Amino acid sequence: MSDTVSYTELGLANTREMFKKAVGGGYAIPAYNFNNLEQLQAIITACAETSSPVIVQVSKGARDYANETMLRYMALGAVRMAREMGSNIPIALHLDHGDSFELCKSCVDSGFSSVMIDGSHLPYEENVKLTRQVVEYAHQHDVTVEGELGVLAGIEDEVQAETSTYTKPEEVEDFVSKTGVDSLAISIGTSHGAYKFKLKEGEEVPPLRFDILEEIERRIPGFPIVLHGASSVLQEYVQLINNYGGKMEGAVGVPEEQLRRAAASAVCKINIDSDGRLAVTAKVREYLSQHPEEFDPRKYLGVARKELIKLIKHKNETVLGSAGRA
Ligand code: G3H
Ligand code: 13P
Ligand code: ZN
């Protein structure tokens, strides 16, 4: 295999067909982040066993961690593993939060079937220009592109409720038509990580801004929308972590019923990273605490992988609605 490889040679699919079906079918494609073997095995096993299309995604940091060449062959291995399980689910390999043309190009050249160019922090016209440049290159290779408008709030900056950070619906038509992107990530109140909302005693998680989502949908009907920062931060894992020596006070995420509502709308890709991290950390902490004599990584990573499979099946079946849609 040469240094430059098309994703089709790896048996991967781009996201075009997946999104078309998801938008029409009222469900969302899961996009699970991974950095290592056990996470990828768990994602593929759970999605093959639930017959769910899947996007496996890699951040810039994950790509540095895992190694670019290793990732290509992991993706090839993931596809083969699914096929050996007798499953024909479509699998996309996606760059999450690409921050430059060069990084996106390098991913296209090394076998990714989809890339995100995140110009959301740039002034609007610069975001359009950069995104357009990535689309022009990626489309020559039939690789799909996700762009972003609006900035996901950080818990620490206290501007979570300010409309300026949310996607401006009046910009979406112009952005989509000028850039040619295949999907659009928006900001409607989610944020990355395990501390999404700062809640006072007795306070409930504020609802996502479905009014903004509906306005976006009205302006670009049928266009695939992506929701980042969509982990639910399941409290059973937070408690396990805290019970076994961890310290994650105040960790809170997006309630599952809100994600279900989003998945039934124009949102056709839902990004989940933190929930997987929590499941793995909870199980590793619990196992090592209960088996202090153990030092075989297969033991503690094995229980973590098993839990991750359970979690992903649950997401596909009862939250995103992607189970049985492959
Ligand atoms: O959106 C961010 C993802 O959760 C990836 O996080 O940059 O720590 O790999 P990372
Ligand atoms: P979470 O941190 O909520 O899992 O979001 C992940 C994400 O958006 C990856 O791009
Ligand atoms: Zn994200």
TrEMBL record:
GO terms for biological process: fructose 1,6-bisphosphate metabolic process; glycolytic process. Signal peptide: none annotated. InterPro entries: Aldolase_TIM (IPR013785), Class_II_FBP_aldolase (IPR050246), FBA_II (IPR000771), Fruc_bis_ald_class-2 (IPR011289). PROSITE patterns: ALDOLASE_CLASS_II_1 (PS00602). Its cofactor is Zn(2+). Coiled coil: none annotated. It comes from Geoalkalibacter subterraneus. One of its GO terms (molecular function) is zinc ion binding. Zn(2+) 1 binds at residues 97, 192, 228. The keyword Ribosomal protein does not apply. This is Fructose-bisphosphate aldolase. Binds 2 Zn(2+) ions per subunit. One is catalytic and the other provides a structural contribution. The keyword Zinc applies. It holds the Pfam family F_bP_aldolase. The active site is at residue 96. Zn(2+) 2 binds at residues 118, 148. Keywords: Lyase, Metal-binding, Zinc. Its EC number is 4.1.2.13.
